[in-house]
Design a protein that fits this description.
mainly alpha; two-stranded antiparallel ribbon; elongated; 7 helices; 177 residues
Length: 177
């Protein structure tokens, strides 16, 4: 749309601003989670919420804040998919990629840089479809479209055994105060 043609929001000298922001968000998020008190408290809210409460943080606020930040990134990604990639919105345009995202988090062992590496792997596998078409290799497009999902399943089967999700993930916590 026309919003993408605005230089501040759209493209800067051939570089996409949203992609640039997301690339900067990767090391920033990794640093925040690893090196700040807020990041330690947030990680503890997923592992052992009573420790968070005893250190003076609110588990509920940390969890809601993390959900809001994750939702903002998800909304930015969805908006970019609809406007920046496809140019319009269509129903089911994510095509089940949420499952692949869960597999990437498992494959990345719940660490931001590992998840980025897993995302790059899945992106590479998705790009093989266009590369094979470009060199004239006659591979059925259905196979190439299904390949990221097959990779995600294989990751969950073989790599998923060794990963351990945060122990309090998805477990409601009621403050003892």
């Amino acid at each position: 749309g026309q919003l993408l043609s605005v230089p501040i929001i759209g493209k800067w000298y051939g570089f996409d601003a949203v992609i640039g922001f997301m690339i900067l968000a990767i090391p920033t998020t990794a640093w925040l989670l690893r090196s700040t008190g807020w990041g330690l408290a947030l990680r503890a809210a997923g592992e052992y919420p009573p420790a968070v409460e005893s250190s003076g943080f609110s588990t509920s606020r940390l969890r809601y804040g993390a959900c809001l930040i994750g939702g903002a990134f998800g909304g930015l990604a969805g908006g970019y998919l609809a406007l920046g990639v496809a140019g319009s919105f269509a129903e089911n345009m994510t095509a089940g990629r949420g499952f692949v995202a869960i597999a990437m988090v498992t494959f990345g062992r719940w660490h931001p840089l590992g998840v980025v590496a897993a995302a790059l792997l899945i992106g590479f596998v998705e790009s093989l479809q266009y590369w094979f078409q470009g060199i004239g290799l006659n591979v059925p497009y259905q196979l190439m479209t299904a390949l990221p999902y097959v990779i995600a399943l294989l990751v969950l089967v073989f790599v998923g055994k060794g990963t351990q999700a945060p122990s309090a993930l998805g477990v409601p916590y009621r403050s003892e105060r």
